[in-house]
């Protein structure tokens, strides 16, 4: 055998020696010098090769600075790819893994898990070894790949303090769009990487060597092993034909692999997840549900999430419990499940209104950035109904029949010029597909919750039709509490992004992503706070002055709407005639803001001036002895009545 490699020169001994001599002669002319100590001469037949050594500079072993290293065992590296024995390939990948460990160690020490996760996903995990998986023969370095996956998992455990089970870690390994964290396991996707790489390069290989052939049909080949590995996972209808190169990119193969993974998790027969778990996986799989994980973790742009909240959100994302056990909600005395689902729909404490108002204000900001003269909570869009007898003309009574005018406000965000120049009323709401009555439906259709609530928004008080009669386009903008975004909301954001891009010359898709991410972060932060406020055994989430303000608000509201208020605090006896001077007048107390929730819940200050009726309180809120009045300022009259304590109506 005379064929040898001297990277990247290849050919017979005479050709390689001639090329080497030319390099040594020409390189100095441009200021370069060939370092022979870093050159390797690799006989293609290893130690059995016969070639003319006198054609070359002195040959020696590794580490001799002035000699070319002669590699006779057939194990070498070419363009970063290990070529040779399986043991060599495994060692090569182990070394690459060990180099990555330096970065993993540093990430493990970060005290900001949001930043650490982003760096881990983008810089220190799957991407570090995917090249090895593409270029090293499948099966030759399986142990090294598995070892690297374990290192990544240990890093995640370190900076989050979490210990997800194997099933939960499989969810973390899913792409963000599939409901995971994007921490793809290289060992799981190695076959896809190798088959895709092998298929994409077979034509080039044949150009270099006409004798080269596709080897997927050779049972002992690495290609055949990789195809078998994939076909063992794929359903029969999508099996790969081992006889010809696959015409799919690695990305598509990996996506197909994940589709199978998700399908198995969602299969009740597999027994991996219960109904709630399957519903949750469907919901986090919905469009936009993972945008908060892709947002730049920056306080400057408002997308940072504090460490404890981020870890809570990671727990929920992976299907882990956030509490040790089920307990009573600290605010409404309802059942607080260990996953924290109740906190996302609990009608007490004002968290839902905070969440709604923050999302509304963000939507307003993005609408203005798109050039729309948007305003929030615009009144007078719909005419009040005539009041006949004890009810409105359509027979509805309830809260609106207590003497107040029917100030109908279907627009959380009003857009004066929308589709076709018509104004639009954007009604924003958050619902939950995990509420008890919807779990079974959500387990088979992740979009059911947003679709149902959008329908409810349209039909309640005939709002959509009345808006149409008034020349308004009614847009129910529904978010699911896990982050999924309803169809109309996606269309709205897409249009706003397009309008904004016209003003800034940016990519509309980029504007859309930024808007979606900011809304998603806002929603998830509010969720995490709501969970924290209901932690079993936690201190009351409001300060004493704020609690006093709430009590006074109850008295003030009771004086106005006595029949509608189930009071936790008795109403003072009526002041006798002539004794008014002795009765202490109601005096609003200043609200001391002690947390973001307190601030948002009591945006109407002083509280006694708030005219929002208390009769919209959910039954659970009304029954709770310590329940505060419902939050003010966030619920439009177009909002359906909150007759279901687990249906978020804000
Ligand atoms: Zn509650």
Molecular structure report:
This protein is α+β, with helices and mostly antiparallel strands. Among the domains are: 2-74, no CATH class; 86-272, no CATH class; 358-489 and 496-506, no CATH class. Helices cover 42% and strands 8% of the residues. It has 21 helices and 15 strands. The chain has helices at residues 13-26, 86-108, 113-124, 126-135, 142-160, 166-172, 186-208, 222-231, 250-266, 275-284, 291-294, 307-317, 351-369, 439-442, 448-459, 463-469, 487-504, 508-533, 544-560, 596-601, 619-623; strands at residues 3-6, 9-12, 40-43, 59-60, 68-70, 76-78, 81-83, 327-328, 335-336, 375-376, 387-388, 391-392, 413-415, 424-431, 473-480. Strands 2-1-3-5-4 form a 5-stranded mixed sheet, covered by helices on one side. A 4-stranded mixed sheet has the order 10-13-14-15. β13 (413-415) and β14 (424-431) form a beta hairpin. α13 runs antiparallel to α18. Residues 400-405 and 539-650 have low confidence and may be disordered. It binds zinc ion. Residues 329, 331-332, 334, 342, 346, 348 line the site of zinc ion (ZN). Zinc ion is lined by residues 329, 331-332, 334, 342, 346, 348.
């Amino acid at each position: 055998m005379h064929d040898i490699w001297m990277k990247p020169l290849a050919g017979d001994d005479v050709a390689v020696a001639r090329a080497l001599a030319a390099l040594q002669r020409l390189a100095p002319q441009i200021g370069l010098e060939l370092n022979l100590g870093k050159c390797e001469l690799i006989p293609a037949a290893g130690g059995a090769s016969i070639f003319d050594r006198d054609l070359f500079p002195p040959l020696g072993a590794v580490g001799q600075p002035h000699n070319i290293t002669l590699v006779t065992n057939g194990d070498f590296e070419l363009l970063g790819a290990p070529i040779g024995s399986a043991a060599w390939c495994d060692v090569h990948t182990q070394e690459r893994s060990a180099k990555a460990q330096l970065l993993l160690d540093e990430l493990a020490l970060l005290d900001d898990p949001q930043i650490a996760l982003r760096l881990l996903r983008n810089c220190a995990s799957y991407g570090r070894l995917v090249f090895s998986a593409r270029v090293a023969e499948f099966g030759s370095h399986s142990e090294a790949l598995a070892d690297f996956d374990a290192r990544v998992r240990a890093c995640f455990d370190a900076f989050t303090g979490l210990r997800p089970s194997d099933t939960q870690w499989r969810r973390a390994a899913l792409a963000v769009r599939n409901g995971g964290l994007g921490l793809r396991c290289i060992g799981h996707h190695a076959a896809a990487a190798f088959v895709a790489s092998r298929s994409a390069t077979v034509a080039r290989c044949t150009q270099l060597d006409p004798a080269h052939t596709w080897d997927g049909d050779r049972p002992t080949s690495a290609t055949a092993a990789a195809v078998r590995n994939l076909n063992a996972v794929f359903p029969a209808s999508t099996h790969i034909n081992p006889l010809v190169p696959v015409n799919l990119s690695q990305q598509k193969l990996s996506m197909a692999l994940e589709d199978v993974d998700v399908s198995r998790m969602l299969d009740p027969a597999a027994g991996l997840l219960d109904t709630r778990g399957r519903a949750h996986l469907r919901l986090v799989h919905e469009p936009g549900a993972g945008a908060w994980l892709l947002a730049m973790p920056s306080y400057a742009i408002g997308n940072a999430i504090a460490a404890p909240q981020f870890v809570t959100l990671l727990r929920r994302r992976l299907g882990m419990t956030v509490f040790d056990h089920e307990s009573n909600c600290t605010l409404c005395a309802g059942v607080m499940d260990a996953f924290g689902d109740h906190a996302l729909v609990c009608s007490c404490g004002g968290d839902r209104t905070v969440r709604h108002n923050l999302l509304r204000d963000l939507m307003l900001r993005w609408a203005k950035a798109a050039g729309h003269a948007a305003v929030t909570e615009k009144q007078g869009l719909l005419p009040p109904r005539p009041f006949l007898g004890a009810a409105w003309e359509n027979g509805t009574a309830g809260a609106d029949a207590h003497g107040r005018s029917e100030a109908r406000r279907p627009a959380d965000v009003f857009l004066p010029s929308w589709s076709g120049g018509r104004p639009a009323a954007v009604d924003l709401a958050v619902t939950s597909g995990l509420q008890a009555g919807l779990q079974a439906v959500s387990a088979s259709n992740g979009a059911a919750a947003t679709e149902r609530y959008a329908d409810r928004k349209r039909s309640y008080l005939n709002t959509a039709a009345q808006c149409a009669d008034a020349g308004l386009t009614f847009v129910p903008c529904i978010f699911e509490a896990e982050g999924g975004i309803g169809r109309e909301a996606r269309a709205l954001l897409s249009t706003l992004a397009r309008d904004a891009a016209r003003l800034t010359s940016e990519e509309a898709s980029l504007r859309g992503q930024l808007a979606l991410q900011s809304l998603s972060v806002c929603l998830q932060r509010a969720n995490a706070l709501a969970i924290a406020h209901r932690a079993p055994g936690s201190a009351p989430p409001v300060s004493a002055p704020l609690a006093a303000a709430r009590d006074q608000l109850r008295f003030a509201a009771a004086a106005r709407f006595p029949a509608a208020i189930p009071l936790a605090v008795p109403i003072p006896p009526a002041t006798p005639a002539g004794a008014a001077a002795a009765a202490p007048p109601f005096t609003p107390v200043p609200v001391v803001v002690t947390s973001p929730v307190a601030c948002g819940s009591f945006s109407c200050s002083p509280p006694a001036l708030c005219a929002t009726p208390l009769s919209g309180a959910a039954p659970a809120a009304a029954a709770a002895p310590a329940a505060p009045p419902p939050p003010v300022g966030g619920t439009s009259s177009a909002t359906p009545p909150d007759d279901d304590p687990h249906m978020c109506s804000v």
